[in-house]
Design brief:
Blueprint lengths: L22 H10 L11 E5 L7 H7 L4 E6 L2 H14 L4 E5 L12 E6 L8 H14 E14 L2 H14 L6 H16 L7 H13 L4 H8 L7 E2 H9 L3 E6 L12 H10 L4 H12 L3 E8 L10 H4 L3 E3 L3 E4 L6 E4 L5 E4 L2 H13 L4 E2 H12 L7 H10 L4 E3 L17 H7 L4 E3 L5 E3 L3 H9 L6 H11 L5 H18 L5
Parallel strand pairs: 1-2, 1-4, 2-3, 4-5, 5-6
Antiparallel strand pairs: 5-8, 7-8, 9-13, 9-14, 10-11, 11-12, 15-16
Helix pairs in contact: 5-6, 6-8, 13-14, 16-17, 18-19
């Protein structure tokens, strides 16, 4: 496709930082499955279809000794990304315009390769070239992240897409086209009874769509190519290019049917010893719509037993906060999502308390383990791996292959990352050093982030905010100072 004909070249479609694509996450999953990936701190990363670098640039900023390369077919977003790189003075990031069909070995080898939102949105020759390029450029223990629309859930999305396409004629801007198309679908649904199962199914899908930006909907639902695939067909396609299924980028959440003994037993009867077929059967049960699959070289031995020795190669963190429990002898731990767990297990309690004190830093499990054993008498060697996996699945711990350069405390003159301060000047969200994207709808909060450049103390920042927002009560600004600093610190914005 000619870049001049690319419909996304003129769309202001800012890409975001996605935690799941970070080499830290990819390295952790590789280690967990028995691979030995390159150290994150000096790895090479390639992002294919990098847009304006919203995902690539924050990673390059946080890992200065690693090398980041990205390309995209569209010239306009590449130019925006290049301008950001120059402004930040990054020497380890390079972005350029290129056609996936025309790049190859000249790019060199990469430890981690990322293609987010590409495989299922391009013609088959392009998706085939994507997997072939991964097969050509991945290092021996390298990992490729490929996201794609999956079946059977993708059938629902395709129904809505076809209805929207019937309404879109290219007139007006992106927001107008998307709004008109979604309004058209709702008008069709209004012809059906309110308790109609078909109506409820489509309305639920539209509700999730409305949580995304119009530009994202335009890209995802109204692109010229839309090819959702079954998981097993995707893995077979990857196999043709010397690649195999490693894992998903994210462990399935606790309600997943894959954790149920009765379900696993039925799957084993239906497809004895065939992991891929069993995983596809689970997707039928999940009605799965989207996957973020990690691939590695086919000649690597992938372990799926999650041995404790591999956790000893990882770092752990936990955003959970401890609180008194209503249950005698227990400690309650709560996530920001509201999920709560009461623990009487000495190892779990000691581990989460250690990680709470360290957050947002990650700590080496190999160093934590002897301290916890000495403190509590609990030995992880017995059921420690199972315990850690359960905590990871429940999101009470996070697994890492690298330690982010976050602050260990809120200093007298706090400094937020220059990357986040740059990003928030033109957007309502910014990437943290933990590579999560945080929305900041409040203009005062956005300005506060910009002011945290390491040159101002609390009084100076309060005075600056009062001058810029005279309609906001001065006392309110002062009262919000410490809670706001704590928020930015725990979110991972502040540099060490």
């Amino acid at each position: 496709m000619d870049a001049a004909q690319n419909p996304y070249d003129t769309i202001q479609y800012p890409s975001l930082a996605f935690t799941h694509t970070h080499p830290d996450r990819l390295a952790a999953m590789a280690i967990l499955h028995g691979l030995s990936p390159a150290p994150v701190e000096n790895c090479r990363v390639l992002e294919i279809g990098c847009s304006d670098g919203g995902n690539l640039i924050p990673m390059a900023y946080a890992i200065p000794a690693a090398e980041f390369v990205g390309f995209d077919l569209a010239q306009a977003p590449i130019e925006r990304g290049q301008a950001r790189i120059r402004e930040l003075g990054l020497k380890n990031a390079r972005m350029f315009q290129a056609d996936l069909l025309e790049v190859g070995a000249e790019l060199g080898q990469f430890d981690f390769m990322i293609a987010n939102g590409l495989y299922a949105w391009v013609p088959e020759p392009v998706s085939d070239r994507l997997l072939k390029l991964c097969g050509e450029l991945l290092t021996p223990d390298g990992v490729a992240f490929i996201s794609y629309n999956a079946l059977p859930g993708g059938y629902v999305r395709n129904m809505v897409r076809e209805m929207m396409l019937d309404r879109v004629n290219g007139d007006g801007g992106v927001e107008q086209q998307v709004g008109g198309a979604m309004g058209f679908v709702r008008s069709l649904l209004a012809t059906r009874p309110e308790d109609d199962a078909y109506r409820r199914l489509i309305e639920e899908h539209l509700g999730r769509m409305e949580e995304r930006a119009p530009e994202a909907i335009y890209h995802d639902e109204l692109s010229t190519a839309y090819r959702p695939v079954h998981f097993i067909d995707f893995v077979r396609h990857a196999g043709k290019h010397g690649l195999q299924f490693l894992s998903e980028a994210v462990l399935p959440p606790p309600p997943d049917p894959g954790y149920r003994y009765d379900v696993r037993s039925e799957l084993e009867k239906a497809a004895p010893g065939d992991l891929l077929k069993q995983e596809q059967m689970l997707d039928f049960a999940r009605a799965r719509k989207f996957r973020e699959t990690l691939l590695c070289r086919a000649d690597r031995v992938v372990r799926r037993d999650y041995a404790l020795e591999r956790f000893r190669r990882l770092l752990l963190s936990s955003p959970a906060t401890a609180a008194p429990s209503e249950e005698p002898g227990a400690t309650a731990f709560k996530l920001s999502s509201g999920i709560k767990m009461d623990s009487k297990h000495p190892g779990v309690t000691a581990l989460l308390c250690e990680l709470e004190r360290a957050w947002p830093q990650a700590l080496s499990f190999a160093e934590l383990e002897p301290r916890i054993e000495e403190e509590t008498g609990y030995t992880f060697d017995s059921d420690g791996a199972t315990l850690l996996m359960r905590l990871a699945v429940a999101k009470f711990i996070e697994l890492h292959g690298w330690s982010a350069p976050v602050a260990t405390e809120i200093s007298a003159r706090p400094r937020a990352s220059a990357c986040s301060r740059q990003e928030i000047l033109t957007r309502t969200q910014a990437a943290t050093l933990l590579h999560s994207t945080v929305k900041l709808e409040d203009p005062v909060a956005r300005r506060f982030l910009v002011l945290m450049d390491g040159t101002r103390d609390r009084n100076e920042m309060a005075a600056a905010l009062q001058a810029e927002f005279p309609n906001v009560d001065a006392e309110e600004i002062v009262q919000r100072m410490e809670p706001s600093l704590e928020f930015f610190y725990r979110a991972g914005f502040l540099e060490g």
